[in-house]
Specification:
- This protein is an alpha/beta fold.
- The chain has two domains: 317 residues, TIM Barrel (Alpha-Beta Barrel); 32 residues, no CATH class.
- The protein is built from 17 helices and 21 strands.
- Strands 1-7-19-18-16-14-12 form a seven-stranded mixed sheet. It has a four-stranded mixed sheet with strand order 3-4-2-13. A four-stranded mixed sheet has the order 9-8-21-20.
- A hairpin with a 6-residue loop joins strand 8 and strand 9.
- Helix 3 packs across helix 8.
- The relative contact order is 0.14.
Length: 483
């Protein structure tokens, strides 16, 4: 099992106990009075059977507060996601912090910011590179690219998972669109791994039929579920942090209820991906203050009160079109706020230009960022060895030095993190070695990974099984007139 990073101090709180209670009570009011739309008669019947008031014409279920709180209690505080190689299994929850790779529709040029469709080889290389990065613990669906040259849109998710199975043995999340969950479940089972299932709302307060069908399929397979809403503050949610927190909370708790009614005890992680809208331009404000505050409130409510693990996606993307200073600070400050406030999974590596693009070079740079954030939440040890009182006394005042001491040689790498691609040379050394930037060094590391890294291979039989399932998917979509 992957260790991740262990948070060794209490998470930051941004809400008082009375504010938490006010948000929770308001959420229950929304669920009971306004209700949530489910575009699935099967879901509505299950909810009605368990005490919800259902309007079948409007497809709206009004969920009583007692049922919400009962289903929160049934949701485990941690759960396991099985990877293809057991050494990469994840235990999500508690004080453990993992990082998930980001994604993007297209490949972005690091120099110009121009985007284009990625080839299948570039997609496979993107997965391979993330497999080699020590802080990438988990992959989302359609990773790393939402589009692949020559792959029909309806086949993208099955083809993407097939690539992840072949080029990494780390854990993955499934998708929900257009029956893809059927074939993704089969692909995972063919190689003996699990999936983190997927069920995403359509804000405000609605779940499409694909999302509900995916939840039924994934819970039937015994997989834990990743739930998300993706509200836009000022668009599909109130513009205020408090109002957006209540709206998002209602959307997610509604499907917590449904999943626990499907299969009590199913593991769930709630994703916070609420983004403010720029009211002057209509664009999204990724990497902004509103993202930070919303995620911190969400983490406090879910991890400390509901005891349900959380994922934060606010640091997955930047508004910057380049791998530059803006990209660095927007992704880093949102990820750090998530880590300090108790997130269990942070989506970080590689996303550029909102959700439009991805680049593996940024993923390599973000590996250093994730290590620094992870080491920060782990804190430092205070004991006889680290306090070094006897050593301080032995060295004494100037001209004493700690440079030649065994204590320094033994402990410096434990106390520090040495980044792999950041420039740490003196100015004369930097000139002498060709004035390489961090991006230059990341390019070199990428080339080295592609040339030398070899993931855990699938067997020949597993590879044949993968191809058969992909062909079954193509036949399925042909019959539906989608291919």
């Amino acid at each position: 099992m992957r260790r991740g990073f262990r948070r060794n101090f209490e998470p930051i709180k941004v809400l008082s106990d009375s504010q938490i209670e006010a948000i929770h009570t308001a959420t229950l009011d929304v669920l009971e009075k306004t209700g949530v739309k489910f575009e699935s008669e099967k879901a509505l019947k299950l909810l009605e059977k368990n005490g919800c008031v259902v309007d079948y014409d409007e497809r709206v279920a009004r969920i009583p507060g007692f049922l919400v709180e009962e289903c929160i209690r049934k949701t485990p505080s941690s759960f396991t996601v099985r990877a293809r190689n057991p050494k990469n299994d994840l235990r999500i929850g508690g004080n453990t912090l993992y990082f998930m790779s980001s994604a993007g529709a297209r490949y972005t040029d690091v120099e110009t910011g121009e985007v284009r469709q990625a080839t299948q080889e570039e997609n496979d290389h993107g997965v391979l590179i993330s497999d080699a990065l020590e802080t990438v613990d988990l992959f989302p669906s359609y990773t790393p690219y939402f589009e692949i040259e020559g792959v029909p849109p309806v086949m993208l998710c099955p083809m993407s998972l097939a690539s992840r199975i072949r080029f990494t043995s780390k854990a993955s999340r499934g998708a929900q669109a257009t029956d893809t969950f059927i074939f993704e479940t089969q692909l995972a089972q063919a190689v003996g791994q699990g999936l983190l299932g997927n069920c995403e709302a359509a804000a405000p307060l609605s779940y499409p039929e694909d999302a509900i069908n995916a939840a039924f399929e994934y819970t039937k397979a015994g997989f834990p579920i990743y739930i998300a809403a993706g509200s836009v503050m000022g668009g599909t949610a109130p513009v205020t942090v408090a109002g957006a927190t209540i709206s998002n909370n209602a959307e997610l708790l509604a499907v917590v209820v449904l999943i626990q009614l499907m299969r009590p005890g199913t593991g769930i992680c709630g994703n916070d991906f609420v983004t403010p809208m720029d009211m002057e331009s209509g664009s999204f404000l990724f990497g902004s203050l509103g993202v930070n505050l919303h995620q911190m409130a969400f983490n406090q409510l879910w991890t400390q009160v509901y005891k349900i693990p959380t994922v934060n996606t606010g640091s997955a993307f930047s508004n910057s079109k380049l791998i530059d200073y803006q990209s660095g600070y927007e992704k880093t400050h949102t990820a750090m706020a998530s880590a300090l406030s108790g997130a269990n999974v942070i989506v970080l590596h590689g996303g550029v230009t909102a959700e439009l693009a991805y680049n593996p070079i940024l993923s390599i740079i973000n590996d250093d960022v994730a290590n620094i954030i992870g080491r920060t939440v782990e804190g430092f040890e205070v004991n006889d060895e680290t306090m070094a009182i006897e050593l301080i006394e032995a060295v004494g005042p100037v001209p004493g030095t700690f440079l030649n001491k065994t204590h320094t040689r033994v402990n410096w790498k434990k106390e520090y993190f040495v980044p792999k691609v950041a420039d740490r040379l003196s100015y004369p050394e930097w000139l002498q070695q060709g004035k390489k930037s961090t991006i230059d060094r990341a390019k070199e590391r990428m080339e080295e990974i592609i040339a030398t890294h070899r993931p855990d291979p699938v067997t020949a039989q597993q590879d044949r099984d993968i191809e058969k399932i992909l062909e079954d998917a193509r036949n399925h979509y042909r019959k539906r007139g989608l291919l």
